[in-house]
Amino acid sequence: MFRNNYDNDAVTFSPQGRIFQVEYAQEAVKQGSVVVGLVNKTHSVLVGLKRNAEELSSYQKKIIEIDSHMGVAIAGLASDARVLSNYMKQQSLGSRMSYGRPIPVDRIVTQIADRAQTNTQHYGKRPYGVGLLVAGVDESGPHLFEFQPSGMIHEMLACAIGARSQMARTYLERNLDEISKSTRDELITHGLRALKETLSQDKELTVDNTSVGVVGLAGEGAKGKIESFKLYEGQELVPLLEAVERSDSGETKEGEETMEIDS
C-alpha cells in the first residue's frame, strides 16, 4: 500500500504502526532554526538562533517569557508556538489568581502535552508543528523540559532541537560533566558555544541573530528566592558573546601549547 493512503489524517495508523502526520510535524521542527537548553543546580538557560525571512524583515522571535519563573524556546512553526505560549500564559495567570502561587513547571508542561496529544487522536485536527524547550524554576529547583509534537515530554539535563542540532547535542554530551558543575555565567557560555557549533562556516553569532534566556535561584541553595526570567537581546548580548570569544581563544592557546610540548 502507498504511504498516502495513511497520511491524510492523524487518526489512522499505517500497517507499521506509524502516524505519518505526527512524523511530518516532527520534520517541521527539524526545519526550524536551532535552540539549545541547559540546566545546572541553580539555573536553567535557553539559547536560540534567530532567522529572518528576507533582508527587509525583522528576525523571528525564538524565546518567549511565559511567567516570571519560566520561558520557552521554539523550533518549528512560529504560529503554532504562539498559540501554545498564549495557552501557557493563561494557565500561569490562572494559577496565580486562583492559588496565589506560580504554576509548577512539570504541571504546565503536562498540560500542553495533553493538548498536543488530543490533536493526534481527533479527526479534523493536525499536530502542532513546533517543538519547545521549557526552562523554569519552582520549589524543587530549576528544570528543563523538551516538548514534541506527538505530546511526548522529557525532562532533560541539556538539549538541542531544530536544524543542524546534532552538532550542538554532540557538544553538550561531550561537556555534560562541566555543564552540571558550572556557574550561571559559565552555563550561558556553554549554551552559546553549543549554538555556535551549529553554524555554517560563513555565519557567526551576532547581537541580531542570537537570543538568551536565563531563570534560576538567586543564590546557591536559596529556597524561595527566584531570579526572574531574564531575556537578553540586542546590545545586552555583547558581554556574553565576548565571553565566548575569550573562552574559545583560551582553548586555542592551550591546544597550541600542548602541541609545542609534545613536539
Automatic annotation (TrEMBL):
Residues 6-28 form the Proteasome alpha-type subunits domain. Residues 244-263 are annotated as: Disordered. Residues 244-256 have a biased composition (Basic and acidic residues). It comes from the Eukaryota. GO terms for cellular component: cytoplasm; nucleus; proteasome core complex, alpha-subunit complex. One of its GO terms (biological process) is ubiquitin-dependent protein catabolic process. Keywords: Cytoplasm, Nucleus, Proteasome. Belongs to the peptidase T1A family. This is Proteasome subunit alpha type. It comes from Aspergillus tanneri.
